UniProtKB/TrEMBL annotation:
Pfam families: SurE (PF01975). HAMAP family: SurE. Keywords: Cytoplasm, Hydrolase, Metal-binding, Nucleotide-binding. Residues 3-197 form the Survival protein SurE-like phosphatase/nucleotidase domain. Belongs to the SurE nucleotidase family. This is 5'-nucleotidase SurE. The gene is surE. Binds 1 divalent metal cation per subunit. One of its GO terms (molecular function) is 3'-nucleotidase activity. The lineage of its organism: Bacteria, Pseudomonadati, Pseudomonadota, Alphaproteobacteria, Rhodobacterales. InterPro entries: SurE, SurE-like_Pase/nucleotidase, SurE-like_sf. It comes from Lutimaribacter marinistellae. A divalent metal cation binds at D8, D9, S43, N96. It is found in: Cytoplasm. Its cofactor is a divalent metal cation.
């Protein structure tokens, strides 16, 4: 198996090293692991691509490249330049520092990389490590992802329907590991995306020494569970969440009611 890895925390992020180890286990001794990751952190850029300016790319080592762009840019670079003519069998994005459950998924560069992989017609999985009091001070906060990541991916790939390869919008998967030590992980739950009520992104104003006003984006409380049967609720209960997604943004449930305007 040939695997392309990317992330949104940057080429030197510890979560990327965890992902590379997961990918190496999956690829096996006869496989290949390629890395094309952002030269600098790209958290929160979602599915952004550098459409109006070029992206510089530099080789950092064998099968390892850094690109001055978003995770989606890195997937494009990997598929159409670095691995041109021999596309990967699988694209992995992560392991993100912090969760991409619930509404976080909409902002996530980690998810953006996986989404671009699916739009390129390739199997793609995003992986993120939830942080919380039970794992934040571990020697390796990514312990749950590191120990359970490969097996989760194997199960996802085995369960993906063969008909998905012909779909207009291919599936990609959002995997979030719970904020607990690896030994405390209770299992896997296939769940839908949730919504954290009463917690939102916002901004906080600061004035610089020169008198200029700057705004810092602030996040909400990540320890608030979502509804039962959704991702953040499963994570906070100690389970790995797996959520199938597509890039089709149509609100299919609203189409019939909207016929009234025709």
């Amino acid at each position: 198996m040939r695997i392309l890895c990317t992330n949104d925390d940057g080429i030197n992020a510890p979560g990327l090293k965890v992902l590379e180890a997961i990918a190496a286990e999956l690829a096996g001794p006869e496989g290949e692991v390629w890395v094309v990751a952002p030269a600098f952190e790209q958290s929160g850029v979602a599915h952004c691509i550098s459409y109006t300016h070029p992206t510089m790319i530099a080789q950092m080592g064998e099968r390892r490249f850094a690109a001055e762009g978003s995770p989606a840019d890195c997937v494009l670079a990997g598929v159409h330049d670095v691995m041109q003519g021999t596309p990967p069998d699988l694209i992995l994005s992560g392991v993100n520092r912090g969760n991409n459950s619930a509404e976080n998924a909409l902002y996530s560069g980690t998810l953006g990389g996986a989404m671009e992989g699916a739009l390129q017609g390739l199997p793609a999985i995003a992986l993120s490590q939830y942080y919380g009091p039970a794992n934040l001070k571990l020697d390796n906060a990514f312990e749950a992802a590191a120990q359970h990541g490969a097996e989760v991916i194997r199960r996802i790939l085995s369960a993906t329907p063969e008909t998905d390869a012909t779909a207009d919008y291919r599936l990609f998967y959002n995997v979030n590991f719970p904020p607990v030590p690896a030994a405390s992980v209770k299992g896997i739950r296939a769940v839908r995306q949730g919504w954290r009520r009463d917690t939102f992104f916002g901004v906080q104003a600061h004035t610089s020494p020169s008198g200029r006003r700057f705004l810092w984006v602030t996040g909400g409380n990540q320890q608030i569970p979502t509804d039962a049967g959704t991702d953040a609720a499963a994570n906070l209960d100690g389970f790995i969440s797996v959520t199938p997604m597509r890039a089709d943004l149509t609100a299919h449930d609203a189409l019939e009611a909207l016929k009234a305007i025709e």
